[in-house]
Amino acid sequence: MDVVICPSSPLLGKRIAELLEAKIAAVQYKKFPDGELYVRVESEEDSHIVVGSLCSNDDIIVLNLLFDAIKGEITALIPYMGYARQDREFLKGEAVSIRAIAKMIEERAEKIVTVNIHSNKAKENFKKLIDVDAMPKIGEHFRGRDIVMISPDKGSAERVKIAANVANCEWDWLEKKRIDAHTVEIAPKNLNVEGRNVLIVDDIISTGGTVVEATKKLYELGAKRVEAACVHAVLADFASIKLFSNGIADITATDTIERIFSKISVAGILAETL
Predict the structure, then answer these.
(1) DSSP 94-145
(2) Measured between alpha carbons, how far is 186 from 218 in angstroms, rounded to an integer?
(3) Topology alike, domains 2-133 and 135-255
(4) Phi first, then psi: what are they for 123, rounded to 5°?
(5) Alpha-carbon distance 8 to 193, whole Å?
(6) What are phi and psi of 236, to 5 degrees?
(7) Which of 6, 10, 71, 202 makes a 20 to 30 Å CA pair with 79?
(8) CATH code for the domain defined by 135-255
(9) Which residues of the chain have pLDDT under 50?
């Protein structure tokens, strides 16, 4: 069995290969002047684990080319499953993007492993998917810290509960209450955050807008310090600068998307799953 590492996940791929005591296949990647991509896999093994997050359209093309180049059985390990947020037809005529991605991957891979896919609705488009939960890893990372974990909305509350139970800390979610036609009040459902160190926890931080809104409100309510943690640090459109300039003291993420903020590795739980 060889591990084939995609350009999007070099360090995570290496960590997983080491834990599995598997060889890393020699792969050549090139981009032609017209933007077309080239892949060559030098491996004689009859089974392969392909490790690569789908962070860009190029990552999807690379994955497809690897599927064509590899001979034998393939396990597709996709830590961050891009396009998962378009999990239904919100407007008539829209492509359900994750359905198209699922069809492409399942046509060639015998097994698919991902981490905290965005929704159960997205998961329904796969028949072979194993979805690994990294929230306990976030909880482990913050165990022993004097913090309260906050979900930016009720939708992510169950995820935050899992992390908080492992961290052995209090947790809550921000609830929006409409006061009148022009006023919406945002506050933790149950807890008082005055004088507390708060950690906003979510599965994905993309543009950072939701976290910024939550941060402002938490400071208004007297929070002493506010940090952010997530599984997938997409951080599009200079989101990290936006977070820091609005009072976020630190950002912590896993290495599903490899960033400077990737302080938690999911290599162990993925190797164990495999």
Answers:
(1) ---HHHHHHHHHHTT-SEEEEES-S-HHHHTT-SSEEEE--HHHHHHHHTT-
(2) 9
(3) yes
(4) -60, -30
(5) 38
(6) -80, 160
(7) 71
(8) 3.40.50.2020
(9) 178-184
The helix, strand and coil proportions of the chain, stated in percent and rounded to the nearest 5, come to 30, 30, 35
pLDDT of residue 178: 47
Would you please indicate which residues are annotated as catalytic (active-site) residues?
176
Query: Domain 2-133 adopts which CATH fold?
Result: Rossmann fold (3.40.50)
CA dihedral 91, 176, 171, 227 (to 10 degrees): 80
> Residue 174: what pLDDT?
86
pTM recorded for the entire structure = 0.91
Chain centroid, CA 255 distance in Å: 8
CB–CB of 169/147 below 8 Å?
yes
What count of other Cβ atoms lies within 10 Å of the Cβ of residue 176?
A: 11
The torsion of the CA quartet 17, 22, 23, 25, rounded to 10 degrees, works out to -70
User: How many C-beta atoms lie closer than 10 Å to residue 43's C-beta?
Assistant: 20
**Buried (b) or exposed (e) across 90-105, using 16+ Cβ within 10 A?**
eeeeeebbbbebbeeb
d(CA 159, CA 129): 19
